[in-house]
Amino acid sequence: MASVTSLFAPVESDLDLLAQNLKGLVGARHPILFAAAEHLFGAGGKRIRPAIVLLLSRAAVPGQDITPKHRRLAEITEMIHTASLVHDDVVDESSLRRGVPTVHSSFGNRIAVLAGDFLFAQSSWYLANLDNLRVVKLLSQVIMDLAEGEIQQGLNRFDSSLSIEAYLEKSYFKTASLIANSSKSVGVLSQLPEAMIDQLYDYGRHLGLAFQIVDDILDFTGSEDVLGKPAGSDLKSGNLTAPVLYALKEHPGLSTLIEREFAEVDDFQQALELVYQSSGLQRSRELAADHARQAADCLQHLPPSAARQALYDMADYVLRRIS
Predict the structure, then answer these.
(1) Most buried of 11, 49, 285, 322 (most Cβ within 10 A)?
(2) Is residue 101 classed as helix, strand or coil in its secondary structure?
């Protein structure tokens, strides 16, 4: 199976440059924030979001080099993503992320909240300096969406009446909005026709939803070594995802266990078994595959190139994580 990094071959040197620039962008004025940023940007993330921006930038106008504005867009995308992770980890009280201690477990909650705020503020400043009002609006919307997704997730804890539609909306806010709107921004910066700009947005939206659904499947099927947390962590914290929502349709008794927040001794174990016995995981796989297929369809009008091929392969890669 091709690793995600080999998918990024067409933009490998662009990603190296991005990694160097990110640390510089945060600046060394605040030693503790700089330490937090170094810690974050050095934590070996897959850099999937900026890679998509860079691949789309190359695919949109093959044969031309990526402009400084496209590069800055990729950096801003990773900054927004990283800021959201810092805040997510504080909200979720996670002690590890990618096997590395989280910012708040290394530096304390106060610094983690400030580091997340600082990264959002920095990304907004660099965004404004792109001097493209339309792109500013698209990525400002993302920052609002991230907060909206986190709020929805908090409000809907242990709510077994949650619909698949509401789950997909929250997944859009939390994951797909950033990929969709940064993809759309590539089209805007590349001055593509409106119809193609919309297709880049749809590529990012479907890919982002597939990603989130796959992550939610892995929460039940991945090993603790890979996930860095025990199976069913989302369910235990009351975050009901696609596999659980589908399982609820087949096993109404599951809602009793969820609504009482696994208060009895065997409740959680029983709930996990009901999810595994149901077709919830299979139906979630089909849902993810459907979104990955729709993402790939959105690339048809881009001219053939190595970058376009990598973007097609990205849709396959998402699904291979659960095959």
Answers:
(1) 11
(2) strand
- Rounded Cα gap, residues 314 and 146, in angstroms: 23
Instruction: Give DSSP secondary structure letters for 250-297.
Output: H-THHHHHHHTTT-STTHHHHHHHHHHHSSHHHHHHHHHHHHHHHHHH
Cα 40 from Cα 79, distance rounded (Å): 10
The domain of 221 spans 4-320
Question: What does DSSP assign to residue 29?
Answer: S
Question: Exposure string (b/e) for 225-259, b if CB count within 10 Å is 16 or more?
Answer: eeeebebbbbbbebbbbbbbbbbbeebeebbebbe
CA-CA-CA-CA torsion sign (101, 106, 108, 114): negative
Look up the CATH number of the domain holding residue 310. Answer: 1.10.600.10
Question: What distance in Å separates the CA atoms of residue 245 and residue 241, rounded to the nearest whole number?
Answer: 6
CB 167 within 8 A of CB 245: yes
pLDDT at position 1: 44
Considering only CA atoms, which of 323, 242, 319, 249 is closest in space to residue 283? 242
Count of structural domains within the chain: 1
DSSP 142: H
The rounded distance, in Å, linking the Cα atoms of 40 and 32 is 12
**pLDDT per position as a tens digit, 230-252:** 789 999 999 999 999 999 999 99
* Sequence-ordered list of residues with C-beta below 8 angstroms from that of 240, at least 6 positions apart, any chain: 156, 158, 159, 160, 162, 167, 234, 248, 258
Run of H or E residues at 233: helix 233-236
- Residues contacting 217, CB < 8 A, separation 6+: 242, 243, 281, 284, 285, 288, 322
> What is the Cα–Cα distance from 289 to 7, expressed in whole angstroms?
19
